[in-house]
């Protein structure tokens, strides 16, 4: 099956190669959809996404999350890294 969309560089990192593609694509969608959200909009978005991940039976181990976050950060701008850190801080405060 051919994919017409170029796979992001972070998905090609050795640390994430063993993580199923559907999990990586789910996170890629999160990154794209949350990139324009304000602080006020981010928490409801994350809560809805958490619900969607449960209904889709998508979950991540702590090791998977750490590998993914580090892979994404390698290919991110300082502004994107700040946004990732903001999301991680919000998620840590909720769980």
Summarize the structure.
Helix content is 64%, strand content 0%. With 95 residues, the protein is mainly alpha-helical.
Category from helices, strands and their pairing: mainly alpha
Principal-axis shape equals: globular
How many beta-strand runs? Answer: 0
Low-confidence stretches: none
Q: Summarize the helix and strand pattern as letters.
A: HHHH
For the record, the count of structural domains works out to 1
How big a fraction of the residues is strand? under 5%
The span between the termini is 37 Å
Number of helices: 4
User: How can the largest sheet be summarized?
Assistant: none
Give the C-alpha Rg: 13 Å
Mean pLDDT: 80
Helix content: 55-70%
Question: What is the strand and helix layout of this fold?
Answer:
Elements: H1 21-34, H2 39-55, H3 62-74, H4 78-94
């Amino acid at each position: 099956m051919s994919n017409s969309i170029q796979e992001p560089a972070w998905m090609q990192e050795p640390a994430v190669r063993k993580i199923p593609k559907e999990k990586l694509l789910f996170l890629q969608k999160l990154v794209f959809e949350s990139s324009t959200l304000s602080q006020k909009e981010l928490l409801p978005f994350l809560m809805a996404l958490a619900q969607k991940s449960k209904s889709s039976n998508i979950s991540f181990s702590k090791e998977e999350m750490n590998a993914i976050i580090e892979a994404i950060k390698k290919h991110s701008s300082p502004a994107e890294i700040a946004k990732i850190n903001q999301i991680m801080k919000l998620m840590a405060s909720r769980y």
